[in-house]
């Protein structure tokens, strides 16, 4: 059973930066796909960044200039670097993982494993 644990969420001023971390315990396989989503209150999760096990990445256009995703060499950790944060980035951020190849569709239904979420709050 795969478990994901996020960390790094915080209160930050607009224009600041944060790096979110996600560590997977249990085996997610050699072809895993990991992703970051965020969720505003009352809304569905929004896919932000996806990365496969061989370095392929996809970032949502709306945050592409500010967010980057990376993974460690072992493939069990994923990171979301967020620069120039804006108040509209305030949300709960979730890490997600799949033992299958990435579909690159930013669909939450692709991912079987989720972390508990970490809150990011950006003050103006």
Q: What features would you highlight for this structure?
A:
mainly beta, 7-stranded mixed sheet, 0% helix, globular, 4-stranded antiparallel sheet, 124 residues
Describe this structure in words.
- With 124 residues, the protein is mainly beta.
- The chain contains no helices and 11 strands.
- The strands form 2 sheets. Strands 2, 4, 5, 6, 9, 10 and 11 form a 7-stranded mixed β-sheet that branches. A 4-stranded antiparallel β-sheet has the order 1-3-8-7, with no helix packed on it.
- The chain is globular.
What composes the largest sheet? 7 strands, mixed
Round the mean pLDDT to the nearest integer and report it.
Answer: 95
The rough form would be described as: globular
How many angstroms separate the termini? Answer: 40 Å
Secondary-structure-derived class:
mainly beta
- Share of helix among residues? under 10%
Number of helices: 0
* Share of residues in strands: over 45%
Order of helices and strands: EEEEEEEEEEE
Précis, in short:
0% of the residues lie in helices and 48% in strands. By secondary structure, it is mostly beta strands. Strands 2, 4, 5, 6, 9, 10 and 11 form a seven-stranded mixed beta sheet that branches. The chain has a four-stranded antiparallel beta sheet with strand order 1-3-8-7, with no helix packed on it.
